[in-house]
User: Which sequence fits this backbone?
């Protein structure tokens, strides 16, 4: 079974990548895995405050993933596997892919303004040749009809 990994955040391009992956999963009989990245939190001297900041970041990521999972289901795909990881995004994605050989493609959305984003920049450049699976970069400017036609 083909498994498509999508990195989820609050950007429009993440939603485009999600729709593309969900549509591909439906058409290929595959599945979707969703990964939310929590950037390293700044150190706060008071442990209680630090714990609250980390808990809020985790809750926010879980909310994003729940919404994204709903989008996947609405496209007719099976319930996706969801994960939340904290730390450097590039490192986390590499570790995740190393742990999960079933992932057949990493699906990232490219921003329409302000550059493609740090993950797209890294993995489409020096990191592309080191990936254990193909990289799909979905232009953030694609509309629903375009995605349906291409997926």
Assistant:
């Amino acid at each position: 079974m083909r498994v498509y990994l999508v990195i989820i955040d609050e950007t429009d391009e993440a939603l485009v990548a999600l729709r593309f992956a969900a549509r591909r999963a439906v058409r290929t009989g595959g599945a979707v895995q969703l990964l939310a990245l929590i950037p390293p939190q700044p150190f706060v001297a008071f442990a209680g405050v630090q714990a609250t900041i980390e808990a809020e970041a985790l809750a926010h990521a879980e909310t994003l993933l729940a919404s994204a999972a709903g989008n996947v289901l609405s496209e007719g795909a099976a319930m996706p596997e969801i994960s939340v990881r904290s730390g450097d995004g590039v490192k986390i994605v590499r570790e995740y892919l190393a742990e999960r050989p079933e992932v057949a493609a990493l699906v990232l959305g490219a921003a329409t303004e302000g550059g493609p984003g740090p993950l797209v920049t890294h993995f489409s450049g020096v990191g592309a040749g080191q990936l254990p699976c193909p990289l799909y970069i979905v232009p953030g400017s694609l509309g629903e009809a375009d995605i349906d036609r291409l997926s």
Observations:
- The longest strand covers residues 31-38.
